[in-house]
Amino acid sequence: MNSWDSAKKPQAPGSEPGGSDEGSQDAPPPPEPRQARAGTLVRRGRLWLFPTVLSALVAVALSLLYMGGTVDPNGNLHRLPIAVVDTDTGRPLPGQRQNLGAQVTGAITASATGERVEWRRLTSAQAQDQLSSGRLYGALVVPADFTDSVAALTTAHAARKPTLTALTNPGVGSLGSSLASQITQNAAHQASLEVGRYLLESNAGKGADARTRLFLADPVTVATAVGHPIGRHSGLGLTAFYYTLLLVLSAFVGANIVHNGVDAALGYADNEIGPWHTRRPTVAINRTQTLLLKMAMTAGIIVLTTSLVMVATIAVLRMDASHLPLLWAFSYCASLAVGLGVQAINAAFGGIGQIVAMFVFIALALPSSGGAVPLQAVPGFYRFLGEFEPMRQLSDGTRAILFFDARADAGLTRAWTMIAVGWALAFAFGFGMTHYYDHKGLQRLTPAPAPGATD
Length: 455
Hints:
Blueprint: H1 3-8, H2 38-41, H3 45-68, E1 80-86, H4 100-109, E2 117-122, H5 124-131, E3 138-142, H6 146-152, E4 163-168, H7 174-201, H8 203-206, H9 210-217, E5 221-226, H10 239-265, E6 271-273, E7 276-278, H11 287-316, H12 324-349, H13 353-363, H14 380-385, H15 390-403, H16 412-439
Parallel strand pairs: 1-2, 1-3, 4-5
Antiparallel strand pairs: 3-4, 6-7
Helix pairs in contact: 4-7, 10-11, 10-12, 10-13, 10-15, 11-12, 11-16, 12-13, 12-15, 12-16, 15-16
């Protein structure tokens, strides 16, 4: 007898539908399901398979990606841009066709470090302009009296030792500036040895005593100066990177909170906080409309998170910052690019979307950002990623605003362009995938729980 027949069966007098006769006993309640025990389940190999394999792959990938970009900056150095500036106005020494400034700068630019360093022969004005826009990591300056100072060392009229100046640029980051400083000081030391060799071979050098010859062998002093100063509360040039990281992390985490919260509110996921569990009735909504809702909420919430990041870092921690309206607008648009991208990836990949988004916006982005380690000091794979990974673009834009007077050629124009590209890709990929799923009838609908069925 089927269920329909049972429903139509006549009831005995005095009975109610679904009830029992007056003298009959109620049917015993169904037995409680037997509770599983962890000790039993832990022995099931299939239960271990997926989380073990995925956790192992994530651990290996994160280790290789993070450490691969930082373990050997000197060994991976490739064309770090450094200027050589020759302002020497002295006459060539006897037997020489060029003054020592021209010889030193020529020897440096032709040195074996050409693959590791991109030496740029610039004027003082050109070098200062490129230091002020972050296009140089440092500079080596030959002073106007260099040749005359060297020539005076072999006479009684020596006023002071010749000096080469190594300029640093802390705005490009402490590691990048430090690498450039090491390179310029080594180059200056080699130039000093070459000058010393010339002095020792001169008539004055050959007739000098041992103490004088020791002095003439390495006669040039190297002075270090800041080529483009930044504020005291700038983290030695690292606040731009960490501020960008804050924008990315707050947008990444916030977008995932919106993703999970909307799914729970619409009845597509359970909501569990501690011992409290709820499951809301399922709302009939397709994937495209769900993504539109999540993106709209993300855009609204990022207004708040961007403002709070600025308040915390600038107002509370007193981070050096200028162009505050521009910084807020850039921060909001940058965070929104990340938030929209996270929602698009979650919509396309479902349950593993958060892991995919983590690799796109964090695991691959951090070592290729150029924020902590210059792109010129990481392996070629990371330099390739830096062409399109979002954090590099956002870090360059933030650095331009914070340290380089919001100059367009300091990376700000490229940053705005790549933010627009990021928005376009997020919309195209996200709505393209959800439209495809909806067109194929791949709905997310699940049976709604009975009214009031909450624990």
